Amino acid sequence: MTMPPIQLRPAGLALLLAAIVAGNLALGTAALAQAPGSENWPAVKCERYRKAYDEATRRFGTKGLGPEFLARHDAFMASGCQTPPDVCPRSTEELNLANIMVMAGMNAGLSSTFMPFACRK
């Protein structure tokens, strides 16, 4: 008995990609995802996020990510990941990257409230 091929919708594809990236990042950061010690915890979290972002954009590229999305995201990282969330994913590619970053961030020991993604309008 053969199984029919699996058909992935765009949201399913995003979740699959997020799981792949998150799994790979988890292997590299599992030991790091422990409670903060004497380190500067906000800086550690930002560095973990930056590494995950660099890995995600290296793997999936930035095609489809708009200039406003990229500028706000860059400003978040330049602030040491301290600015309030205002990176609003509007395109499918932006939403896919945001989903990947949430999964990767959680696997790196970051809380969901750390993420820069929010659409206020």
Written description of the protein model:
With 121 residues, the protein is mostly helical. The protein has a domain at 55-121. Helix content is 56%, strand content 0%. The chain contains 4 helices and no strands. Helix 1 (10-29) runs parallel beside helix 4 and helix 2 (41-60) crosses helix 4. The longest helix is centred in the N-terminal third of the chain and has 20 residues, at 10-29. The protein is globular. The mean pLDDT is 83.
Structural class: mainly alpha
- Please estimate the helix content: 55-70%
The oligomerization state is: single chain
The biggest beta sheet is recorded as: none
CA gyration radius, whole angstroms: 15 Å
Q: Could you tell me the mean pLDDT?
A: 83
The counted number of beta strands is 0
Low-confidence segments, given as residue ranges, are none
Q: For the terminal residues, how far apart are their CA atoms?
A: 51 Å
Shape, principal axes of CA atoms:
globular
Number of helices: 4
Q: Could you spell the SSE succession in H and E letters?
A: HHHH
In terms of topology, how is this protein built?
Elements: H1 10-29, H2 41-60, H3 67-78, H4 92-107
Helix pairs in contact: 1-4, 2-4
Structure summary:
The protein has 4 helices and no strands.
